[in-house]
Design goal:
single chain; 0% strand
């Protein structure tokens, strides 16, 4: 597999999507803090419902919605672009846009759901501590930097370590459903390559070896970053 001519292209496609996804990691934390500070109960419940709901949309439906929204002729995105004076384009046919489309739709689908664990962590924060901080003259920025973030940091580190364990493990379904002949060069990742080898070409032993290669990288990443985290922050998975 390492000698395969497209090895580096497949690895780069996989890592690019993973790194883009990693850049969105802080958004659920920020969203949880914003939700936690909301005092209007009705608005807070509405915001939670609207952001949690996309998580329960199946991958097939999500990809169908994405393709329909980005359609060149009838897509709402192109209609909006044209309204602003731009020109319609076939978004799904551009290889360079595949990774951003994948990550943005993933963020939309999972932003609210991923924020739940951080909201749970914030719920254990003592109200007396916040009241005492306000009495001492702390503003919202002080509360954020000196209370919220230190309190969330152990949870954030654990979630980040788990995220690093899937650095080269891009979900198969969504990539496969968004893939087409025009963006195939940038949408071929390890999971779709393993599927093509095993299920389409019948090379079961080779595809199993590539899958094992993927899992070895994931385990190595978890061990390395867990060791670094334990030395630097005293927080680790084991």
């Amino acid at each position: 597999f390492v000698n395969y001519p497209k090895f580096w292209q497949i690895m780069w496609n996989t890592l690019r999507i993973s790194l883009y996804s990693l850049l969105t990691f802080p958004f659920p934390v920020i969203f949880a803090i914003l939700l936690n500070d909301l005092r209007n109960g009705w608005f807070k419940r509405t915001a939670q419902m609207l952001t949690y709901a996309p998580h329960f949309i199946s991958t097939v439906v999500l990809c169908s919605m994405t393709i329909l929204f980005l359609n060149r002729e009838t897509g709402v995105i192109n209609s909006f672009v044209e309204l602003l004076g731009g020109t319609r384009k076939d978004w799904m046919a551009q290889s360079s846009l595949f990774a951003p489309i994948y990550v943005i739709t993933d963020l939309w689908q999972n932003l609210g759901w991923n924020s739940i664990i951080y909201l749970a962590a914030l719920s254990s924060l003592s109200p007396d501590l916040l009241d005492a901080s306000y009495v001492d003259g702390a503003n919202r920025w002080h509360i954020l930097w000196y209370i919220y973030l230190p309190h969330l940091m152990p949870t954030v580190i654990v979630m980040l370590l788990l995220k690093m364990g899937t650095l080269v493990n891009i979900g198969f379904e969504k990539v496969f459903l968004l893939q087409n002949t025009l963006n195939i060069d940038s949408s071929t990742v390890l999971s779709t390559y393993v599927y093509d080898l095993g299920m389409v070409k019948g090379q079961y032993s080779y595809s199993a070896a590539v899958g094992l290669f993927e899992h070895i990288i994931n385990i190595t990443m978890v061990v390395v970053f867990n060791t670094l985290s334990r030395k630097v922050t005293d927080t680790s998975l084991w």
